[in-house]
Amino acid sequence: MRIAVYPGSFDPVTNGHIDIIKRAAAMVDRLIIGVLHNSAKTPLFSAQERVNMLKEVCGEIPNVEIRYFEGLLVDFVVECNAAIVVRGLRAVTDFEYELQWAQSNRIVCPTMDTVFLVTNVQYSYLSSSVVREYASQNGDISAFVPPYVAEKLKEKYNCVDRK
Prior knowledge:
Blueprint lengths: L2 E6 L6 H11 L4 E7 L10 H12 L5 E6 L3 H7 L4 E6 L2 H17 L4 E6 L9 H9 L10 H11 L6
Parallel strand pairs: 1-2, 1-4, 2-3, 4-5
């Protein structure tokens, strides 16, 4: 059985993330989305809120499981009995950063491979930080996130529809 882990903070999950999730899920028997706690960041949404949003927007993908984790990715991958890590790439700068982590992880866990999926060009500009900035200013985020996530962002920022 091919098990892969797609780790990220998903704060919030974007349409770009969902594109990677759908494509990765089609390549493996089981895809575990690892919602990580990054001590270097202060998330807008709690870990449970991020897990819940992912469960809502990925609920129709049968081989996807969403789990929260802390600590090292290599430990989480081993815990999940996975051998593949999926990472999305938007630009060359993403590749440089991700390559460093992939190589380090491979040294620590020689059975772990990293697969890079190039982001669909329609999402190449998109990041969670862009979404948060637009949402915080009551901007139109309908092209960035699913409607469920847009509602959660509006609630978080106490925004109203601009209609």
